[in-house]
Amino acid sequence: MQHILKPKNQVVIFVDFREDNNVKTLLEKNGGIIKEMNLEVGDYLCSDRLCIEKKTADDFINSIIDGRLFKQLEELKDNFEKPVIIVEGNNFRETMNENAVKSALASIILDYEIPIIMTKNEEDTAKTIYWFSKREQIESERPVGIKGKKKPKDIKKLQEYIISGFPGISTKISKRVLEKFKTIKNFGNATEEELVKIDGIGKALAKKLNKMLNERYAD
Fold first, then answer.
1. Which CATH architecture has domain 2-146?
2. CA 176, 182, 183: angle at the middle one, nearest 5?
3. CB-hemisphere CA count at 13 Å for 53?
4. Residue 174 phi/psi, 5° resolution?
5. Ranges of CATH 1.10.150.20 domains, the chain
6. What is the pLDDT of residues 164-195, one digit of tens each?
């Protein structure tokens, strides 16, 4: 992270150059100094630890459908201490099954532990980003920095990702599994009795996992 010098009592926000909307102009009207650059992760860099991924309601839905959202969530968590998601617009529940939307929202908050904020329009989005940035840079005196390359996914994250791919296993539970069994191989050899001792794995899930891990593949 390369920290930059900025004018005293001024808010500097790095914005991904691909962001094609009025939010950048509205941020400047609110008093922000905008610096456009190629951000590999997120859309608005507000401090050395705070990065915001902003989506319109339609893009939020599309990113759930194509799986892009969850990859972006992982990258935000891997690279920033305080990631935030902003969803702009209030019509997203009308364009997709409500249960699917609620499931995605629950995963963002509970599995990834990333706050999600709903804004009404571009003006509301700009005000939200500005005040987040001001809180970080002026009130908390956090530096604003440019992150070069996104952090490569280490073996620990890959292990968690593989375990969380099993039905019923969230990111949080995958961490508990690895803390208990240490390796994916040990997890594969675990008995139902051992699996059920993991917080979040009940008897039914333990039985299902044990069957998946041990039953021979049939052509």
1. 3-Layer(aba) Sandwich (3.40)
2. 115
3. 27
4. -60, -35
5. 155-214
6. 888 888 888 999 999 999 999 999 999 999 99
